[in-house]
Design a protein that fits this description.
4-stranded antiparallel β-sheet; 6-stranded mixed β-sheet; binds adenosine-5'-triphosphate; Rossmann fold; alpha/beta; 239 residues
Length: 239
């Protein structure tokens, strides 16, 4: 069976800096997969390559068999991408923002996609307000709904709960689990290792552009003799 995501010896250089140093990982459809590591590990770079927004310097990556180098258009039709930071659009209302995206990415059934996206936000009447007046948590929910509203085969979520308080982070995690139940395959990044332990079926621990461990959370804990991923990570990067 074709893998949902297959990354093979992926390299990314920014000038002299090698941010991603030949990483490989893959997983099946239906998985919630985590790319976990501290600031600057190379998570966003990897996700941006998979979302076809950045060219790799070496190696290959495939989404459901399509190459990020050769099949960008095909990939863009089957993924939803939540960027780490999204600026702009603060003068649009939340609703207008969803409508614009639905019309661009799902012209054939945009009304249905828009309605679903509006429900996913959970923002109710606040969708009529300008994005500039939203809190961080509201913006994150809006962007997450945008990434998921066309029911992508693969959702690529860069730090979906970054900067959120415990209530909003919990709500976002609930949305992610719900989407996974509905059949969306999920690849997410986080530096919150406890969150990932709770959310992900499988993961790669990444540090300075290198994968230091990968597998199911319980297997990594067993192999490192720890009871949480933070301790596992500290042990792995010190050895
Ligand atoms: P964070 O958790 O802080 O978002 P990350 O794991 O997502 O970190 P990346 O954003 O992929 O890490 O960055 C990896 C490395 O590449 C860092 O050293 C970063 O400074 C560098 N980098 C990222 N984007 C660029 C760029 N456009 N130009 C030059 N260097 C970059």
């Amino acid at each position: 069976m074709v893998k949902a995501v297959e990354v093979i010896n992926l390299v990314k250089r920014y000038g002299k800096l090698e941010a991603v140093k030949g990483i490989s990982f893959s997983f099946e459809e239906g998985t919630i997969y985590g790319l976990i590591g501290p600031n600057g590990a190379g998570k966003s770079t990897t996700l941006r390559i998979l979302a076809t927004l950045l060219e790799p310097s070496g190696g290959e990556a495939k989404i459901f068999g399509f190459s990020v180098k050769k099949d960008k258009d095909k990939i863009r039709k089957i993924i939803g991408y939540l960027p780490e930071e999204a600026g702009g659009y603060k003068y649009l209302t939340g609703y207008e923002y969803l409508e614009m995206n639905a019309k661009i990415y799902s012209p054939e059934n945009y009304e249905e996609v828009l309605e679903y996206g509006a429900t996913l936000t959970g923002l109710g009447d606040r969708l009529e307000d300008r994005i500039g007046s939203y809190s961080k948590g509201m913006i994150r929910r809006l962007l997450l709904a945008r990434a998921l509203m066309n029911r992508p085969r693969l959702a690529i979520l860069d730090e979906p709960t970054a900067g959120l308080d415990v209530i909003h982070a919990t709500e976002i995690r609930r949305m992610i689990r719900q989407m996974a139940k509905e059949g969306v395959t999920i690849l997410l990044s986080s530096h919150n290792m406890l969150e990932v332990q709770y959310l992900c079926d499988e993961l790669s621990l990444i540090s300075q552009g290198i994968i230091v461990a990968q597998g199911r959370p319980e297997d990594i804990l067993r192999d490192t003799g720890t009871d949480n991923l933070e301790d596992a990570f500290m042990k792995l990067v010190k050895t």
